[in-house]
Specification:
By secondary structure, the chain is of the alpha/beta class. The chain folds into two domains: about 120 residues, 3-Layer(aba) Sandwich (Rossmann fold), CATH 3.40.50; about 140 residues, Rossmann fold (3-Layer(aba) Sandwich), CATH 3.40.50. The protein is about 35% helix and about 20% strand. The chain has a six-stranded mixed β-sheet, sandwiched between helices. A six-stranded parallel β-sheet has the order 9-8-7-10-11-12, sandwiched between helices. The radius of gyration is 19 Å and the shape is globular. The structure holds NADP nicotinamide-adenine-dinucleotide phosphate. NADP nicotinamide-adenine-dinucleotide phosphate binds next to helix 6 and helix 9. The site of NADP nicotinamide-adenine-dinucleotide phosphate (NAP) has 23 residues, from helix 6 and helix 9.
Amino acid sequence: MAGTTRLAGIMGWPVGHSLSPLLHRHWFEAHGIDGAYVKLAVAPKGLEAALRALPALGFLGCNVTIPHKEHAFALVDERDAAAEAMGAVNTVLVLPDGRLKGLNTDGLGFLAHLRATLPGLALEGARALVLGTGGAARAIGRVLLDPGGGAGVETLLLANRTEARARALADFLGGGEVVPWEARGAALEGVDLLVNATPLGMAGQGPLPLDIEALPAGAAVYDIVYRPLETDLLARARARGNPVVDGLGMLLHQAVPGFAHWGGVTPPVDRAAREAALAGL
Ligand SMILES: NC(=O)c1ccc[n+]([C@@H]2O[C@H](COP(=O)([O-])OP(=O)(O)OC[C@H]3O[C@@H](n4cnc5c(N)ncnc54)[C@H](OP(=O)(O)O)[C@@H]3O)[C@@H](O)[C@H]2O)c1
């Protein structure tokens, strides 16, 4: 690395499992950019000092992951609209004057991957069911309902194991109908899009308990879990002919705005980018 190497990284605690370095290093290499993207294992008590040190160390920015997304939101100097709405950031840009700008690109990544995978899927006016109401579902619900730049779905159904959290999310979004967790299978009738935003289906978690009998034949099924790439839910949906969308592309697309800043070019989310990240799965 030279003194001019473009520096970025990911702060998390722990951070060892992250696929982001593989992806950003691939983009640096593919574009012939002298850049480095490092894993920064930052304990919660060190987050403020670590973020504040970025400009002094010559970093152009970083991604932030669990458990830092909300704390980083409070620490940055300015935020984009998505971060303001979410109260969490996943990307921090170092601006030319040394100020820090926080972005939340999860919703954008979710939607960009959906549109890229299923360009024929009509989202405006659609009926969607989201399972889970955690941080990821919050970003997804927001972008699904948003008519300006988002998907503009007509009906958003929310089902969560802890129903009070589904009600809280519907309040936060200013839209959305709560479906009891026990009724999630029946609620599939008439939907155009089903999204799993719980960790169920992830290796070590057990499969998502969901009977998809009532799912319409043409409905799209999007699982944001990406370890494994084809979850039990996606395998069952694919077997009955439903179009499916895996979770890896969301991770790739959400990384684009950060790289555009520290790499200086907007990178393509193509097969090579996907294979670079897949090497870490
Ligand atoms: N593809 C991507 O780029 C991407 C991005 C972000 C997240 N993710 C993945 O998405 C998943 C959710 O992330 P998150 O940050 O939203 O997590 P989170 O904030 O912890 O929320 C987890 C959600 O899943 C529900 N849940 C957890 N265990 C459950 C179980 N055994 N049965 C039923 N519901 C259960 C929780 O319900 P309660 O409210 O009842 O606890 C909650 O609604 C994770 O697997 C994460 O890796 C993927």
